Amino acid sequence: MTNDLVLDETQLLAALRERDEAAFVTLVRRYHGPLLRLAMVYAGSRAVAEEIVQETWLGVLQGIDRFEGRASFKTWLFRILINRAKTRSERERRTVPFSALASSEAGGDEPAVSPDRFLGADHPDWPNHWCAPPTSWGASPDQLLLSKEARDLIGGVIAGLPPAQRQVITLRDVDGWSAEEVCNALDVSETNQRVLLHRARSRVRGALESYFGRE
Fold first, then answer.
1. Over 80: is that where the pLDDT of 30 sits?
2. % of residues, the chain, pLDDT over 70
3. What is the pTM of this model?
4. CA-wise closest residue to 186 among 86, 112, 111, 48
5. 3-state DSSP: the chain helix, strand, coil percent, rounded to 5?
């Protein structure tokens, strides 16, 4: 986050404490998308996720005078959303705490890359080395990634990821959050965050390799 953005947000929060409607609208526009994506991880439908986000913004208005800035506004905001989601879970028994999803998906022995792509441990010359290494995407991978078909593919793969992996890769690679911001907002360990991101990126890359291999 740049100094200009920090200054801008400080001014917005000061205006919000004065109940400036324009400041509130600016913050909603800035964070609504990421909030909704996280709420979708907890909720069973977009309608429920939208309600959680609305409850989050109500919580912001109710709590802004008590916000002391010990954490960033972004971290505080997303913690409000997580608390609202947990409260709704207790009331409706149909949302799942993100920390539970993250621990479940980061644990276990799920490989990030299929074992079929490696030589066996008993290979005489190259034990455990690649037998099908990552393929080249050609001379202009950036141009290929800009194609609508490739973007749609990436979006489809991310949408099909397990919930915690989907949220972490969305915050890191779509919304541009730092690892520290993700850990603070989602209340997950740095190790779990790293494993979830690695597994998610591996799935996306695997799908892109197959796509470009057909080109």
1. yes
2. 67
3. 0.62
4. 86
5. 70, 0, 30
